[in-house]
Design brief:
The complex is a heterodimer of chains A (334) and B (290). Chain A is of the alpha/beta class and 334 residues long. Chain A is built from 12 helices and 13 strands. Chain A has a 9-stranded mixed β-sheet with strand order 6-7-8-3-9-10-12-11-13, with helices on both faces. The longest helix of chain A is centred in the middle third of the chain and has 18 residues. The two termini of chain A are 18 Å apart. Chain B is mainly alpha-helical. Chain B has a single domain, classed as MetI-like fold (Orthogonal Bundle). Chain B is built from 11 helices and no strands. Chain B is elongated and about 75 Å long. The N terminus of chain B is likely disordered. Classes of the chains: A alpha/beta (334), B mainly alpha (290). At the A-B interface, helix 2, strand 6, helix 5 and helix 7 of A face helix 7 of B.
């Protein structure tokens, strides 16, 4: 990370609320993170911490009837995506920012041949004129994502493929539109461990080849240690810590992150060493949170934590944490 | 496409499975075969006889069924056999055309209502409800007063409110389908609403749509027969099962075959379509498997 990198995506103080007919619930309470060109950022957090909602907000996919952006900015190449109309944002979806989902069987159209589905999304470049050329392009994409015997597989329906193959199809479908950013929303959760490794390896390979940026959403910390450049840890709708992968694993700063790391099984632990769980449970987002979201479960909490929501402090280069423990460090809003 | 390069292992397995399920259903198969026979005779039946449907022969009026006139003759000496197959053409044409128009209007109206949701959905469906609550026969009579009587008017009369059923069914399907991940995925790829509806949602409603069409056809056929029976339908000398039944009714006591044949064919056609429709519903819905 020595050379200066450009931010391709910058999410600033994003607040999203969901509402039922009576009340509004603030679900994303000011999330900030950014993505450099060509890097892989992991968005980590437990269920309900707001990873997916944040990711979907980037391409405006949260349901309009019940979700509302309260404040914040999502800058893609210095253009605020939140200000765009539905029609305008559609030009960014797929072509600039592609997204793959957790369960490949439900994210593929069951009534269309997989080859056709990929073909539909091919970037409209002047190079592709005839259906023969686009057919070849699909076959090429299938080869790129490691689908063997692509010509035969072109004519299969999603239910005729295995889970790993479906996710490969899904990846090739997203790649067909040549996006600059790939958002992968738990792409390996529905797959078994060996296939998980293959898919991660594949994403890494493609990223190098096409110079894409990846936002990788997961709840599985051990999965991403060898895969991502930087990690943003989310808790109760905010990003509590951002650091490079190395910094985060060797020297976690936020109490939540360090407790989280203690609760993960590792190979070098002996069997009689118990894992340390985090006491309590995450806050219910239907209740208004004043102060730090992690306060009730934190062993280092002070009265300030109860009353005031901590801003993000820059601890060292690339390492930020939203915790009052670091109030001596410089505040960082960027 | 390079189809010769492609070795398809299992082609159209959904349709194939459905066809297998349909074949196991004896009633549906009977319905299907009956319909094929009806269509066949509607197309070639009249040419079995040298007579035309409008040829009258007063010397041979009200003949009972015989080797020459298989179904007998009517009060003007016209061959009922020939007229039945002409009637079949009219009935099937009206039924299928009306059902297809219903389908086209219904799937797009219902599809957009379901997909757009919210206030638009509310307005669209309540408008449809209002149309549906108008007395149907009254509209049809008014229509025949304004327009010329004939096949076109009948088709318009049937489709005027017929599409609402299709719209409701499509809307219900879309409402549940649009929550699926592949719709979100398509939307994440930048697909427009229209594209999502046509390419992703409607193909997935295929089963219920086909079933509804199959069950709309007999309804339309019956409406046509009923309107013709009342004298609001096709005009002489064109034969329709409805007009033939109306002509045959006064002669019921003396020449019962004049009512018997058109009535039988109306019933057989209705039954066949309904059996096939029921069978298709079971066959096209894999979740209904026992």
């Amino acid at each position: 990370m020595a050379k200066k990198m450009n931010k391709i995506l910058d999410v600033k103080n994003l607040k999203i609320s969901f509402s039922d007919f009576e009340k509004k619930y603030l679900v994303i309470r000011g999330a900030s993170f950014h993505l450099f060109e060509g890097e892989t950022l992991a968005l980590v957090g437990e269920s309900g911490s707001g990873k997916s909602v944040t990711a979907r907000a980037i391409v405006g996919l949260n349901p309009k009837e019940c979700s509302n952006i309260e404040s914040g900015e999502i800058l893609y190449r210095n253009k605020n995506l939140l200000e765009l109309s539905e029609k305008k944002i559609r030009e960014y979806r797929g072509k600039e920012i592609g997204m793959i989902f957790q369960d490949p069987i439900s994210s593929l159209n069951p009534t269309m041949k997989v080859g056709k589905q990929v073909q539909e999304n091919l970037a409209k470049t002047p190079l592709i004129k005839t259906s023969h050329e686009s057919f070849n392009k699909v076959i090429e994409l299938f080869r790129l994502v490691g689908i063997s015997d692509p010509i035969r597989r072109y004519d299969l329906y999603p239910h005729e493929l295995s889970g790993g193959m479906r996710q490969r199809v899904m990846i090739s479908l997203v790649l067909a539109a040549q996006p600059k950013i790939l958002i992968a929303d738990e792409p390996t959760t529905a797959l078994d461990v060996t296939i998980q490794a293959q898919i991660l390896h594949l994403l890494k390979k493609i990223q190098k080849k096409l110079n894409m940026s990846i936002i990788f959403i997961t709840h599985n910390l051990s999965l991403i240690s060898g895969f991502c450049d930087r990690i943003a840890v989310m808790y109760a709708g905010t990003v509590v810590e951002t650091a490079t992968t190395k910094q985060l694993f060797s020297n976690p700063k936020h109490p939540y992150t360090s407790k989280l790391l203690q609760s993960i099984p590792r190979l070098n632990l002996t069997t009689d060493q118990p894992l340390i769980p985090i006491e309590g449970s995450p806050p219910i987002l239907t209740q208004t949170i004043t102060g730090c979201g992690f306060y009730p479960r934190c062993h280092l909490a002070t009265t300030q934590c109860e009353k005031e929501n901590p801003p993000t402090f820059l601890i060292e280069k690339n390492h930020k944490s939203a915790c009052w423990l670091y109030k001596e460090c410089t505040k960082n809003d960027d | 496409m390079n189809t010769n390069l492609v070795q398809t292992q299992i082609e159209n397995s959904f349709l194939k499975d459905s066809w297998h399920r349909l074949k196991q259903n004896k009633f549906a198969l009977t319905g299907l075969i009956t319909l094929l026979v009806l269509v066949f005779f509607a197309l070639v039946g009249p040419s079995f006889s040298p007579l035309k449907y409008y040829e009258t022969n007063l010397a041979l009026k009200n003949q009972p069924p015989s080797p020459i006139f298989w179904f007998g003759t009517d009060e003007l000496g016209r061959s009922i056999f020939v007229r039945i197959w002409w009637g079949a053409r009219i009935s099937l044409f009206v039924g299928i055309t009306a059902a297809l128009i219903d389908m086209l209007i219904g799937i797009f109206y219902g599809g957009f209502a379901g997909l757009l949701g919210g206030k638009i959905d509310e307005i669209m469906m309540r408008t449809a409800d209002m149309l549906y609550s108008l007395p149907h026969l009254l509209i049809v009579i008014l229509l025949t007063v304004i327009m010329q009587q004939g096949i076109t008017t009948i088709i318009i009369a049937i489709t005027l409110t017929g599409w609402i059923n299709m719209a409701r069914i499509t809307r219900a399907q879309i409402l549940s389908l649009k929550e699926h991940d592949f719709v979100t995925a398509a939307s994440a790829m930048g697909a427009s609403k229209t594209r999502i509806l046509i390419r992703h949602l409607l193909p997935n409603c295929f089963g219920p749509i086909i079933t509804t069409v199959t069950l709309t056809i007999p309804h339309a056929i019956f409406t046509e027969a009923f309107l013709s029976f009342l004298g609001l339908g096709v005009q002489a000398p064109i034969a329709s099962w409805g007009t033939m039944a109306a002509d045959g009714l006064p002669a019921l006591s003396f020449y019962p075959w004049r009512l018997f044949f058109p009535a039988t064919f109306i019933s057989i056609t209705m039954l066949a379509f309904n059996l096939l429709g029921d069978g298709l519903r079971d066959a096209l819905d894999p979740w209904l498997k026992k």
